[in-house]
Write a structure and sequence with these properties.
single chain; alpha/beta; Archaeosine Trna-guanine Transglycosylase, Chain: A, domain 4; Transcription Regulator spoIIAA; Rossmann fold; 7-stranded mixed sheet; 11 helices; 20 strands; 29% helix
C-alpha cells in the first residue's frame, strides 16, 4: 500500500516497538500536509523503517492511533477478523441467559476508537475517534457480515469525539432501528434499554459481574442504589432477597425506566423506592437505615484538569456512605473516570474512612470484566475501578 507517511524523531520509536497504539505529536518529526483527520497513514522511524499503520489526526495531541504493527490493509476484512475474534471470546465466556454484552472494546481489542455493544438482536456502535469515524462504512459492513445484526445504531457522543474535533452523531446505520427500548436478558433478569437516548450506549454493561455480586449478598438487607440510572443494581438486590431497594437518580426519565425494569422482573417498588434527587443531598437528609450501598457515580474527572475537584467529590460521596452504614454494612464503590487510578481511588477511600472515624475493610478489588478487556500494552484503557468494602465500628 502507498499511504502518507508520519516520520518519528530519532529515538522516539520505543513506544511503538512496545506496541503502544498512541503516537503523540511531540514524537513526530515529519507529518503529511493538509491531510484530513482520520486518514490512514504509515508510521516510520527516523531511518524510514516501517513501524505501524493507523489513523492520523492533526487536530489531536494523539497524532496517530495505530491499528496494526504489520504491513496489512485496514479494510472490511481486517475489521471483520477482529470483530469475529472478539465475539468468539465473549460467547465462550458469557453467563447463561444473557444476550447483552460488549462485543469489542476499542484499544482493549486492538481497534482504537471503536466500541461495539450487542443488545439482543441488534448492535450499538460508538465511533470515538476521527479514524473510526472516517472508516464508518467499512466498520458497518464488517459488523453486518460478521455479527448478522437485525439493526445497527450509531451512538457516538462524549468528550473523546470533541477532543478529536468531531460532533456528536446518533442515528441508524443498518436495518430498522427500534423506536422503543430494547428488551434484553442479563443473568436471567430482564431489562429495557433505551439505545437511542440512554447513557453510554444505553446500559452499563461493564457492571454485569458486580450486579450479580450484589444479588449474592443482598438477602435480608436494605439496599441503596445511588446514581442508580435505570435501576439495575436495585433489580438485582431484590432478586437476591433484599428487604428493600431504593434507587436515587437526578434524572426523571431514568427513574421511569427503572420502574419498567422492576416491573419486567415481577417487582413492585413503591414511590418511595424511586427517588429523584441529588445523591449528595439524599445521603445528608434521608433517614433510611441502609446496610448495603452501591455508589456508581458518573465520571467526575472528565480530564486531568478536573482531577482535584473529582477527588474531592469521590471522597465526599464515600464519606457520606460510610457514615450511613451500620457495623457489617457493605459498600460497593466505583469510579469510571480513567484519570482516577486504582491507587488514587484507594487513597480517596482511605481519606473518607479516616474522616468518618470508621473501620473499613476492602474485601475485594473490582474492575473490568472479560468483555471490557485491558490491552497490556495500553494501561490507559483501564477506566473502571472499584472496591467491595465492609464497614465496621
Amino acid at each position: 500500500m502507498s499511504l502518507p507517511i508520519v516520520k518519528l524523531k530519532t529515538g522516539r520509536e520505543k513506544s511503538v516497538h512496545n506496541r503502544h497504539p498512541w503516537i503523540f505529536s511531540g514524537a513526530v518529526e515529519v507529518e503529511p500536509a493538509e491531510l484530513p483527520p482520520g486518514e490512514l497513514v504509515d508510521v516510520v522511524d527516523a531511518a524510514g523503517a516501517f513501524l505501524g499503520r493507523g489513523a492520523y489526526n492533526p487536530r489531536s495531541q494523539i497524532r496517530v492511533r495505530v491499528f496494526t504493527f504489520r504491513d496489512e490493509p485496514i479494510d472490511v476484512a481486517w475489521f471483520a477478523a477482529r470483530l469475529s475474534a472478539a465475539d468468539r471470546l465473549r460467547r465462550a465466556m458469557l453467563p447463561p441467559d444473557t444476550d447483552a454484552y460488549r462485543v469489542l472494546h476499542a484499544e482493549g481489542d486492538g481497534v482504537p476508537g471503536l466500541i461495539v455493544d450487542r443488545y439482543a438482536d441488534g448492535l450499538v456502535l460508538t465511533l470515538a475517534t476521527a479514524g473510526a469515524d472516517r472508516l464508518r462504512e467499512a466498520i458497518t459492513a464488517a459488523a453486518v457480515q460478521t455479527l448478522s445484526p437485525a439493526w445497527i445504531i450509531e451512538h457516538s457522543t462524549g468528550g473523546y469525539r470533541r477532543e478529536e474535533g468531531l460532533d456528536d452523531r446518533v442515528g441508524p446505520l443498518h436495518g430498522k432501528a427500534p423506536a422503543e427500548p430494547v428488551r434484553i436478558r442479563e443473568n436471567g433478569l430482564h431489562f429495557a434499554v433505551d439505545v437511542n437516548r440512554g447513557q453510554k450506549t444505553g446500559f452499563f454493561l461493564d457492571q454485569r459481574a458486580h450486579r450479580e455480586q450484589v444479588r449474592r449478598h443482598a438477602r435480608g438487607r436494605t439496599a441503596l442504589n445511588a446514581f442508580g440510572y435505570s435501576g439495575a443494581f436495585a433489580v438485582y438486590a431484590l432478586a437476591g432477597g433484599a428487604q428493600r431497594a431504593v434507587t436515587v437518580d437526578i434524572n426523571a426519565e431514568a427513574l421511569q425506566l427503572a420502574r419498567t425494569n422492576h416491573e419486567a422482573n415481577g417487582q413492585t417498588p413503591d414511590r418511595y423506592d424511586l427517588v429523584q434527587q441529588d445523591v449528595f443531598q439524599f445521603l445528608r437528609e434521608d433517614q433510611t437505615a441502609f446496610d448495603l450501598i452501591i455508589l456508581d457515580p458518573p465520571a467526575f474527572a472528565k480530564n486531568k484538569a478536573a482531577l482535584d475537584r473529582a477527588a474531592r467529590g469521590y471522597k465526599d460521596i464515600n464519606l457520606l456512605a460510610i457514615k450511613r452504614l451500620p457495623p457489617d454494612g457493605l459498600l460497593w464503590t466505583f469510579s469510571c473516570s480513567g484519570h482516577v487510578s486504582a491507587s488514587l481511588h484507594r487513597k480517596i477511600l482511605f481519606g473518607a474512612a479516616l474522616d468518618a472515624g470508621r473501620d473499613v475493610q476492602v474485601l475485594e478489588t473490582l474492575g473490568h470484566h472479560f468483555d471490557h478487556p485491558i490491552n497490556v500494552y495500553h494501561p490507559e484503557g483501564e477506566y473502571l475501578t472499584g472496591f467491595l468494602c465492609r464497614v465496621g465500628d
